[in-house]
């Protein structure tokens, strides 16, 4: 089985619609794909409706969190999207995205970049607006050569000149909320140092003690020594280890299925979940 547990659609900051994403996943030879848009479940219905035969959909989300001033992302799988407290918290995070993005546009204009809010909003479309949309605008303006080039201290990285913080969950609260909704939590790309500051390994240990289920190990932003380090940490803490593409369509260079999760690990994630079940494709 080929299993990719971290992808994005136009419901957040990917460039493929949910329907295009699941069709692309099937074409890439995947057996299981998780749709984990940022702080939203808005793409799940479209993905279900278009799910090809032979492909299983795992519903999820990537949650924006912050711990001791450091941003981090928490993948949540197979939770009940209607659980009231968790739904309210996701809405709070989403609602803060527009003023935060407007703030970054304002900072960029102060730095002499002729970007406009209208340009960013047009790129985001119906998706939850975020930094990748602003980065795309910078590419279109010729300010940077690629989306990844915008995520530096010069521009949009966590310590960047144009960075603006947004409402983010405490990761301990995120774990509690996801668990209460019957879901499973995996810390996304925990040592992706190229993105900015990362939480220390001691913090991952505390998250594990609070109920964190796993950490994403095989990811494009982790080199081989980092992956080995994370596998050792996961073994010490009793955490599951996953691998995923973090696919964003044409906005990033990674391919669907570029990194995958072991079928036994996937089986354990499904076993632990009580809020929702994987959706088998029937050729929709």
Question: How would you explain this protein's 3D organization?
Answer:
The chain has 284 residues and is an alpha/beta fold. 38% of the residues lie in helices and 15% in strands. It is built from 11 helices and 8 strands. It has helices spanning 18-27, 44-49, 84-95, 97-110, 117-124, 131-140, 147-150, 171-180, 201-209, 224-237, 263-272; strands at residues 3-7, 32-35, 56-67, 70-77, 184-187, 214-218, 240-243, 279-280. Strands 1, 2, 3, 4, 5, 6, 7 and 8 form an 8-stranded mixed sheet that branches. The longest helix is centred in the middle third of the chain and has 14 residues, at 97-110. The two termini are 21 Å apart. The model has no long low-confidence stretch (mean pLDDT 95).
Summarize the SSE layout with pairings.
Blueprint: E1 3-7, H1 18-27, E2 32-35, H2 44-49, E3 56-67, E4 70-77, H3 84-95, H4 97-110, H5 117-124, H6 131-140, H7 147-150, H8 171-180, E5 184-187, H9 201-209, E6 214-218, H10 224-237, E7 240-243, H11 263-272, E8 279-280
Parallel strand pairs: 1-2, 2-3, 5-6, 6-7
Antiparallel strand pairs: 3-4, 3-8, 4-5
């Amino acid at each position: 089985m080929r299993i990719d547990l971290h992808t994005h659609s136009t419901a957040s900051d990917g460039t493929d619609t949910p329907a295009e994403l699941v069709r692309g996943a099937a074409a890439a030879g995947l057996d299981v794909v998780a749709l984990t848009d940022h702080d939203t479940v808005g793409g799940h219905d479209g993905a279900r409706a278009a799910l090809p035969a032979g492909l299983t959909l795992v519903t999820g989300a990537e949650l924006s969190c912050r711990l001791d001033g450091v941003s981090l992302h928490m993948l949540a799988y197979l939770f009940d999207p209607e659980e009231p407290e968790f739904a309210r918290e996701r809405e709070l995070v989403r609602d803060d995205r527009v003023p935060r993005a407007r703030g970054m546009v304002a900072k960029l204009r102060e730095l002499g970049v002729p970007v406009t809010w209208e340009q960013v909003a047009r790129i985001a479309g119906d998706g939850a607006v975020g930094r990748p949309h602003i980065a795309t605008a910078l590419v279109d303006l010729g300010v940077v050569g690629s989306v990844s080039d915008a995520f530096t201290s010069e521009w949009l990285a966590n310590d960047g000149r144009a960075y603006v913080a947004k409402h983010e969950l405490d990761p301990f609260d995120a774990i509690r909320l996801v668990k209460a909704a019957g879901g499973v939590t995996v810390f996304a790309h925990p040592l992706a140092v190229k993105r900015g500051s990362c939480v220390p390994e001691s913090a991952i240990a505390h998250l594990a003690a609070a109920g964190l289920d796993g950490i994403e190990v095989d990811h494009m932003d982790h080199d081989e020594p980092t992956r080995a380090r994370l596998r050792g940490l996961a073994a010490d803490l009793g955490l599951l280890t996953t691998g995923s593409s973090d696919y964003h369509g044409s906005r990033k260079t990674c391919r669907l299925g570029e990194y995958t999760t072991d079928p036994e690990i996937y089986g354990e994630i499904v076993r632990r979940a009580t809020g929702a079940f994987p959706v088998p494709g029937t050729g929709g």
